[in-house]
Write a structure and sequence with these properties.
CATH architecture of the largest domain in chain A: Box
Strand content of chain A: over 45%
CATH topology of the largest domain in chain A: Proliferating Cell Nuclear Antigen
Number of domains of chain A: 2
Oligomer: homotrimer
Largest interface: A-B, 18 and 15 residues
CATH class of the largest domain in chain A: Alpha Beta
Order of helices and strands of chain A: EHEEEEEHEEEEHEEEEEHEEE
Shape of chain A: elongated
Number of helices of chain A: 4
Strand order of the largest sheet of chain A: 6-2-3-4-18-17-16-10-14
Radius of gyration of chain A: 19 Å
Largest sheet of chain A: 9 strands, antiparallel
Distance between the termini of chain A: 53 Å
Number of strands of chain A: 18
Structural class of chain A: alpha+beta
Amino acid sequence: MKLSLAEPTYLKESISIISDLVSEARFKVTPDAIELVAMDPANVAMVVFKLLSSSFTEYNVQKEQNLAINLSNFKQILRRAKPEDILTLELEENKLKIQLKSNTTRTFSLPIIDLEEKEQKVPELKFPVNIKTTAALLNDTIEDVDIVAESVTFQTEPKKFIVLAEGDLSQAKIEVPEGEDTKITAGSDTVKSKYSIEYLKKMINASKLANEVTLQFDKDYPLKLEYTVVDKLQLAFILAPRVENE
Amino acid sequence: MKLSLAEPTYLKESISIISDLVSEARFKVTPDAIELVAMDPANVAMVVFKLLSSSFTEYNVQKEQNLAINLSNFKQILRRAKPEDILTLELEENKLKIQLKSNTTRTFSLPIIDLEEKEQKVPELKFPVNIKTTAALLNDTIEDVDIVAESVTFQTEPKKFIVLAEGDLSQAKIEVPEGEDTKITAGSDTVKSKYSIEYLKKMINASKLANEVTLQFDKDYPLKLEYTVVDKLQLAFILAPRVENE
Amino acid sequence: MKLSLAEPTYLKESISIISDLVSEARFKVTPDAIELVAMDPANVAMVVFKLLSSSFTEYNVQKEQNLAINLSNFKQILRRAKPEDILTLELEENKLKIQLKSNTTRTFSLPIIDLEEKEQKVPELKFPVNIKTTAALLNDTIEDVDIVAESVTFQTEPKKFIVLAEGDLSQAKIEVPEGEDTKITAGSDTVKSKYSIEYLKKMINASKLANEVTLQFDKDYPLKLEYTVVDKLQLAFILAPRVENE
């Protein structure tokens, strides 16, 4: 296996975001893509990451490989990549070799670890609500509600996406009308569900990768956030709802 | 009551500065202005703030209202205002409603609190010394003395403003001559008084609002710092002297 | 003694870097230069600093003087110097007077301290290896190895400078070929020696002063790092090797 990237940014930023949720994970390297599906330790959030072979300048994978590594260490190494570096990944004697090449040749090696965890499957989910908006708008919204509460309610009304949060003292309500930047697909019924702001704050860092985001959810049902760079990568998150015991 | 601001910056910065000194305070909303007079919990510093109705695009106040709120929470909400937002303040069912409107409509509500403290009156003070200088110069001076001591002596000499600080080890002395940027009105006698640097450091943040500052003081007497934006706002501080028991 | 600098940056940055290694030190002020030779408290690193009289606009030193001061306090004062300030150093009644002059005159005084430590001599060292490269490249290299280990091995191979680090888990290897930016003088034998990354991280801050750096070392022998600004200053560091007990 030998993979080269002329623009290390996508891999670098993706791993940095994922490592905020999952500290160790298994990559599946197929002839088509590098893939990762992982649950966070609290079993509340799932990350689904795919970096397509078309984003590499060299992509030489004979047969599918699984390799589990410590993502924090991987992130630290990737952070050393400068925009002008060519980044190469290779497997060598139970180590992942990461090479950064420009004037100098900098080679890091990281141990392949044993992950007891069995392979995660992405659950099949169906969503009546699909909202496509700018990543910047979602960021603002989450930062808004973060100052009043720990959980946030996403709600649809005809041609409107509503975000609500209620703290002990203060409340926040953001109304996002359908418009040029925001497309809302939803039935005529109001759909309403609650999610953890702490997790959302980690996920919205994916706005560094893509300008748009898709939100899908249902009443007391998981949320799916999806960031896509066409022909390059997909980074999606599935977040369990906060169901109230009332 | 309904008040709208097309430039949220003045309110935002003022509340941020005031909340460093006072955590809860009562605003008086009159047909002319929003006013606040508050003492810090240690009774060492007073804040006098006035945001004139002329700085609002809509200013609808039928009768004078008093409303006490938590300034830290208010600051956090105002910090979410972006330059392009129109900020509207309304009273609704014992809540202060703060609306930020651009593409989206973001509404925060903050509880009106009970403040036992009785209304503060601005003391009548007379000062023999009046120094008008740039806010940047005062900032530099306070940051200079901050590295050697905890209190600073302001002193006048003919056509000179002198700032002194003496720590256990080091000393600092800044001489500011009268000049284009600095106008000094003082009698022929030397006037000298000592103030807390910790408090001054919080007050000089008002340099974000205005380029000029007026200092007024007397021997072992309070200091008054005043920042003004003509037709818009006034932010003044009164600081008790540090009288030495020698 | 009276010394004036029109560009305080060199003195300011030098003292800031040195004070990370040594908290108190004795300066020798000769008719030619201000000099400092000091060991860090752990006796692992030596600093050799020389600021030539030619970098001063006024340099009035009748006879050689020794003056020991607290470098952290001196750093804090120098940090207050703005690029447009003229900085003057004078000795006055057992105090070092530091004056910063622009619109205002700001005078700080710092006590001369008693340093029991006897005068340090720069050891005479001979090095078979001399590498001249850009300060930026050395910075990158040290930051690279810092993520995997606490010590780093410098190694020469014909026309190559190799930097290695091995942590419990990860490894890093940087190969710097001879080239336009990097000149390597070394014998035909491989020379290899190990040094503390923590110390190197403090030393490479001298890249703020000079664009180039010279590295000299030998097997299990001290390393000398040298940053020079022609006709102005020299800042060198000598670092003891980490000899392995194997």
